[in-house]
Design brief:
The protein has 459 residues and is mainly alpha-helical. Helices cover 47% and strands 11% of the residues. It folds into four domains: 123 residues, Rossmann fold (3-Layer(aba) Sandwich); 76 residues, Alpha-Beta Complex (Glutamyl-tRNA Synthetase, domain 3), CATH 3.90.800; 125 residues, Glutamyl-tRNA Synthetase, domain 2; 94 residues, Orthogonal Bundle (Arc Repressor Mutant, subunit A). The strands form five sheets. It has a three-stranded parallel β-sheet with strand order 1-2-3. The protein has a three-stranded antiparallel β-sheet with strand order 4-5-8. Strands 6-7 form a two-stranded antiparallel ribbon. The longest helix is centred in the N-terminal third of the chain and has 17 residues.
Length: 459
């Protein structure tokens, strides 16, 4: 059952543009998007680009491209956090005027010395009128700052252990926790859904929001993703970014389905779901606390299921786009459609399709190991007999070929692979192709015989 609908849900995805959009970030974006679409709410894209050295236009473009590839559209934004710096300075001045914040000229060494004298208590500074001091937010000495987390439950942070933390540098530059809190308040964010590596920042942002008399959003901190070995997800586990998934030939709809299930599941454990069903059924309350495991083998399986269920024309369109971008070729549409028809049951990713059907558009590849294994003298003798069979008049469709070749195998008492693999290597150059009968039929009698003749001639 989905969560109870709420009015005016406003969520945001707020990546830092310091590189490609990683899979964990993509899941965070997806969960926010599903919450917005499932509630009729608003999905806001905010770029947290205050790190000016790493927040390059190229990195921002990578994130936007990744979201577009995932087909996660946003309703507002992209909003640049850096471009809101004057608004952040206004909030800082307001906090200074109210006494919720103060200037402090203490150096890092001063803070270390203070902590050495006061044990494990958080640093408390000395207010000053010196404009060269950093701005710190006052943290209560007693009590706790509570984060009511949808996933983790109630999390308490003792105030005495927290520093009066810096919200602006001496030059007036606002820092992360101030900027995030102000942006969330100004944008009316009702739910903050993000990775649990941000949980330690949350009490600081709660304190800023309270000092500004702003309402608190609901928080939901997602457990981080691990690889199958139980360690934090990284490149050693395979594709680590959305761009890498796209380049590997996955379908956006399959990736959405798989990412949604990393930590969340339906009451009836449904695995394969359309995006429309994900929107209807997703509930942030059903996300578990344990780390979710990203296993690319499971994604490949799911992607294969999605590919096999695509209508042939849509399948052909997806393959055409992929091979144009990644192989630099644009096969003739009708022939590509025929090729896709025989590969659709075999390929699990778009990247696997072209190697399977390339023989229909180009000359066979040269695989010395395949030739050595299946085009030896004993195999060539069988291939000569096959050549005579293939040259006979009559239909040359997959059904007819299957009937003739099966009879050939049975009459000679041979193992199928000792007949079909030499033929496969002759026409494709490799030991891997779609079904042999479908492959020969798609290639046609004339080109099949030409390639068999070349194989028999040893060329």
């Amino acid at each position: 059952m989905s969560a109870t609908p709420r009015d005016n849900v406003r969520v945001r995805f707020a990546p830092s543009p310091t590189g490609a959009l990683h899979i964990g970030g993509a899941r965070t974006a997806l969960y926010n998007w599903l919450m917005a679409r499932g509630s009729g709410g608003t999905f806001i894209l905010r770029i947290e680009d205050t790190d000016r050295e790493r927040s390059t236009p190229e990195n921002v473009a990578q994130i936007l491209d990744a979201l577009r590839w995932l087909e996660l559209d946003w309703d507002e934004g992209p909003v640049s956090q850096f471009e809101r710096r004057e608004r952040h300075r206004e909030a800082i001045e307001r906090l200074l005027e109210s006494g919720a914040a103060y200037r402090d000229t203490a150096t890092a060494e001063d803070v270390r010395r203070w902590k050495a004298e006061h044990g494990n208590r958080g640093y408390r500074g000395t207010p000053t009128d010196d404009p060269n001091g950093a701005v710190r937010l006052r943290v209560p000495d007693e009590g706790v700052t509570v984060v009511e987390d949808v996933i983790r439950g109630r999390v308490e942070f003792p105030n005495h252990a927290q520093d009066d933390f810096v919200i602006a540098r001496a030059d007036g530059t606002p820092l992360y926790n101030l900027a995030v809190a102000v942006d969330d308040a100004d944008m009316g964010i009702t739910d903050v859904v993000r990775g649990d590596d941000h949980l330690s920042n949350t009490p600081k942002q709660v304190l800023v929001l309270r000092a500004l008399d702003a309402p608190l959003p609901r928080y939901a901190h997602l457990p981080l993703l691990h690889g199958p070995d139980g360690k934090k997800l990284s490149k050693r586990h395979g594709a680590a970014s959305v761009q890498e998934l796209a380049a590997a030939g996955y379908l956006p709809e399959a990736v959405r389905n798989y990412l949604a299930l990393l930590g969340w599941g339906t009451e009836d454990d449904t695995t394969l779901m359309s995006t429309e069903e994900l929107i209807q059924r997703f509930s942030i309350e059903r996300v578990g606390r344990s780390a979710a495991i990203f296993d690319e083998r499971k994604l490949r399986w799911m992607n294969g299921r999605f590919m096999r269920e695509l209508p042939l024309d849509e399948y052909t369109d997806a393959v055409a786009r992929y091979v144009a971008e990644h192989e630099g070729v644009e096969p003739e549409r009708a022939r590509l459609r025929e090729a896709c028809a025989i590969a659709q049951e075999k390929a699990q990713t778009l990247a696997e399709v072209w190697p399977l059907v390339r023989f229909l558009f180009e000359e066979p590849v040269d695989d010395p190991k395949a030739r050595e294994k299946f085009l030896g003298p004993e195999h060539l003798a069988t291939l000569r007999e096959l050549r005579e069979l293939l040259a006979q008049d009559g239909a040359f469709d997959a059904g007819t070929l299957e009937e003739r070749l099966t009879r050939f195998v049975e009459e000679r008492g041979l193992k199928p692979k000792h007949v079909y693999q030499p033929l496969r290597v002759a026409i494709t150059g490799t030991t891997i192709s779609p079904g042999i009968f479908e492959s020969v039929a798609a290639l046609g009698r004339e080109r099949t015989l030409e390639r068999v003749d070349r194989a028999l001639a040893g060329s």
